[in-house]
Amino acid sequence: MKTALLTLLASVAVSTAQASQVQLGLELSGLEPMKGQHYEGWNIVDGAALSTGRFSIGKDGGVYLVNAMGKSLKKVGQNGHASFPVDRSHLKASLFVLTIEPNGDTDMGPSDVHVMGGDYSRRQASLSVAHGSSIATDFAAAQGSFILAAPTGGMPNQGVWFLNPGNGQGSLSLPSLPDGWAYEGWIVNTENGGKFSTGVFKDATLADSDNAGPLAGPLKLNFPKVPGQDIVRTPVVLDDGIHAIVVTVEPYPDFDPAPYAIKILMAGVYANAPGMTPMMLNNISDTVPSGQAHLH
Q1: Distance CA 27, CA 104 (A)
Q2: Residue 5 class from Cβ within 10 Å (0-12 exposed, 13-18 middle, 19+ buried)?
């Protein structure tokens, strides 16, 4: 009799807990696996940020619930679709925000790295990087060009610079970014997928984080004060027809050495491209992450 009573009480407790919860459904596209950091969803209720759960994207496309250290606990979805149990108080949410949090995070609130957000209407929210709660631009107006040059003492095909050689000014036209984000240039080998950063920058009119770069030539102080990189001390050349130049938007600070999913400008370097000749970058901002959130 005592065992039966305990079983009944446990069943009632489970039913009560389930009755106090609702489900947050997420349908996210464009997110990629990350190292050293993970995602966390937040519902904003009466101005307070309530966590909806931490998760990561696996190499298999799965959505995995993770702890604060970024360790996978269980698979909860696939291809960006997942569901998270939340308290019924979340039904009053006015806004959903998705953030990137560092593994080992001890701060109970959201980071400054807001990936996308959206306002709820009838418990549904369309999520975008352009929402005012996140990056606040869709990057559709981003544009620019690059040249091949190695001013620190190499052949022209051993460096890439976001420079307009006609006036010596930076060649990128990019929107300002909020706290938590920065731009980064990349050299990408389109055959083997190899990637090489050309430096992180907030302002495209100034030098980037590593100036001429760790592989600059002997004249390492002789470089234009704009984003770019010389790769003189390596056998890599850029005009072999298999390299591309990419500009991304990265979490800042960034705990993953690979490019983030927000890729906004890209162009291939054609074979035997001449030095000091501007090559236009194509806007690829239609590929940036987006999504939907719904409470039910």
Answers
A1: 26
A2: exposed
pTM of the model: 0.92
State pLDDT tens for residues 234-288: 988 999 999 999 999 999 999 999 999 999 999 999 999 999 999 999 999 999 9
Q: Is 228 left (phi over 0), alpha (psi -120 to 50) or beta?
A: left
Retrieve residue 38's tokens: 């993970």
Reduced to 3 states, what is the DSSP secondary structure of residue 206?
A: coil
Nearest to 142 by CA among 296, 288, 34, 22: 288
Distances (CA, A) of 215 to 138, 147, 241, 265: 34, 18, 21, 24
Contact of 250 with 260, CB cutoff 8 Å: yes
Strands (E), 153-286: 159-161, 163-164, 169-170, 181-189, 195-201, 228-230, 243-251, 262-269, 279-280, 282-283
Structure tokens at 43: 């519902």
Peptide bond into 235 cis (omega under 30): no
